[in-house]
Amino acid sequence: MNCRSEVLEVTVEARQVDEAMLALLHTILLHRSTGKFHYKKEGTYSIGTVGTADSDCDFIDFTFVRVSSEELDRVIRKAVCEFKDALNNSGSDGMGQISLEFYQKKKSRWPFSDECIPWEVWTIKVNVVNLANEQERQICREKVGEKLGEKVINVVEVINRNEYLPKMPTQSEVDNVFDTSLKDVQPYLYKISYQITDSLGTSVSTTMRRLIKDTLAL
Amino acid sequence: MDSDLSPQDKKDLDKFIKFFALKTVQVIVQARLGEKICTRSSSSPTGSDWFNLAIKDIPEVSHEAKKALAGQLPGIGRSMCVEISLKTSEGDSMELETWCLEMNEKCDKDIKVSYTVYNRLSVLLKSLMAITRVTPAYKLSRKQGHDYVILYRIYFGEVQLSGLGEGFQTVRVGVVGTPVGTVTLSCAYRTNLAFMSNRQFDRSAPIMGIIVDHFVDPPCSSQRPAVMGQPCNYRAPDEEDGGAFAGVQDSQEVCTTSFSTSPPSQCVCTLSPSPSKMSKPLPLDSLQLPLAPGLVAHNMCASRLSYQPSAAEVYPAAANANQLLHAGKEGGVVVVPCQPHGVDAHLTVEPPLNTPGSSGDDEGLSRSGEERREEGRSVSPSDPVESLNAFTRKVGAFVNKPSTQITAANLDLPFAAFAARGLDSEGSDPMVQPPESPPSQSPLQASLHSQGSEGSGPQDDFVMVDFRPAFSKDDLLPMDLGTFYREFQNPPQLTSLSLHISSQSMADDLDSLPEKLRVYEKNIDEFDAFVDMLQ
């Protein structure tokens, strides 16, 4: 199948990177998470309940809704933190991108390892700027808040196209479609990776690719 | 069209759409409560969480939604709309956004009702949650409080967008195809927030639901967000039944004014939605405390939603207090008493008091010639000179009035200084006309008197000598301050200050006390009910 790819671009101040990324990643994951499946006999299953939580941003005039799951939040924060550190340390002019990829696992026969077939990739391109004074920062707060609002609307628009979604799996297949490691929610299998664009704008002399969900380690 | 749909599927679909509509309303209204919403995920299905989402049901909101639907479902030409508007403390209101749940004719016959439609409706609800935090009304609702509140109204039928002003924007939350039509959820929001003051509240039906966010000295003050920690203001005295909830109608708004000498502050609040959407900042005139009573229903720490019945359905306050407190934070709901603000009267017409404690002759001399009223009670004289000065009124720079006799007996009575010697024929007030000073004059007074005695009228007790008020220029304008002073120097004496009258009235008061007590005791139930209502 074709993998759907969406790109979102944001320009933020250095201290806003965390929250901007969290806002967008959580918004996407909110739509791509379900409750925990409980399989019963005869191939039926019931689905747990997903709670939601509002999160206010400190450096941006924005509030986003995320899935009410501390575990998931921790994982996402860790990824965003690494991305931010990489951005800071890279010495580049503050450009990078973080990707959230939803994939399915396809079992292959030995000796081949399972394939990971992405079906949706979200790429968030970040451009970090430095602002000179407090007034500009204040304006930036509001503007970035607005921009994130627009991005959320974009995300919602894409998701509501109701294009391809993996079929609901049987019990044996559930781990090929969903991440069942969390105890309260069940997002689709995903991985987060990032790239820092160096100052030449080329995609990375040394690619730093971190697999937060390391599904290749079998 | 329905022939392809099995009866069970049809039944399921109807149920899904009904509950989707109810949950949509809950999500929208809860997003405008002004607080952060947080619900918990649960891995084990409870069976009662529609669409696998933890969305609380606020009973009043459900009630309103069901009432609006009246047993029908959103269908083609029959949309369910939730209108969010803002109402200021002065009664001006403005529609902010309208969320529409519509159905169109485009059917998706092949879709599986029980699974795909259900899941897609679930995703649509999540999208709704995300979008409700993005529209400009969200920020406004987070800041609601004394200056304005956010209200909601649910109606069914034709979508009305005319109240949103020019240039309103629309955002589509999403669509879900079903075998009987396509469910569409969208929001139209106002972008022009220029507020028209004194705008008529020209809606046909009163706004039924109110999202109120007021706190009054809440016992659980720790739960309060810092921004909203303002005491509640008042309840209209003319509410029926002493009931807690007046309908939100302009006619019931009573604005108690605070009697302050300072002018009311303007532009207390500038509503600031996202700047790109706003043409200019929004000055709201005189957003003064306290709020209109109709809006202040009840104070809840946890849930700021209170359902305001129309005027016809006013419940006694005590009962209502329990009825309304359901939805709240998971920690439970606390009823917070709403105390009437009452007349916040600092009736500050007190004159600037003389600062007592200035001792010594020099101080007396150097007192400015500004008008001062020296009240006996405010002065704690430390020496005879002080006491004398306390009872004199200095008019004009360094002018002292001719001393008059004051008896020792008079000195003992409070406010004796203001007691007229008869209800004065001269029409001069005792403030102006100083009480009699002791026969022995202090050297100070004598000297002052001699200084100021030029040009004094022979008959007048009150000596006005070439009145030059301090700090007032007399070259440009002919002594405005002086003119004013002259004009108003002889106000009529206050009757309550007349010793004769006051003693008489006190006697009357004492006599009438038993009668009054009888009346109060007779109405004791009423007073108790009133007190309960306040709690």
TrEMBL record, chain A:
Entry keyword set: Autophagy
A GO molecular-function descriptor: protein kinase binding
Compartmental location: Preautophagosomal structure
Origin superkingdom: Eukaryota
InterPro entries referenced in this protein's UniProt entry, alphabetically: ATG101
Gene Ontology CC terms: Atg1/ULK1 kinase complex; phagophore assembly site
Record carries keyword DNA-binding: no
GO process terms (BP): autophagosome assembly
Protein family according to the UniProt entry: Belongs to the ATG101 family.
UniProt-recorded name of the protein: Autophagy-related protein 101
UniProt organism field: Oryzias melastigma
From TrEMBL, chain B:
Organism: Oryzias melastigma (Marine medaka)
Chief location: cytoplasm
Coiled-coil ranges (or none): none
Name of the protein in its database record: Autophagy-related protein 13
Keyword set includes Cytoplasm: yes
Span list, region Disordered: 345-386, 424-461
Subcellular location: Cytoplasm, Cytosol; Preautophagosomal structure
Biological processes per GO annotation: mitophagy; piecemeal microautophagy of the nucleus; protein localization to phagophore assembly site; regulation of autophagy; regulation of cell population proliferation
One GO location term (cellular component): phagophore assembly site
InterPro entries cross-referenced by the UniProt entry: ATG13, Atg13_N, HORMA_dom_sf
Bias (Basic and acidic residues): 364-377
Ranges for domain Autophagy-related protein 13 N-terminal: 92-195
Record's keyword terms, sorted: Autophagy, Cytoplasm
Biased segments, Pro residues type: 432-441
One Pfam family named in its UniProt record: ATG13
Gene3D superfamilies: HORMA domain
UniProt similarity note: Belongs to the ATG13 family. Metazoan subfamily.
Lineage: Eukaryota, Metazoa, Chordata, Craniata, Vertebrata
Compositional bias of kind Low complexity: 442-451
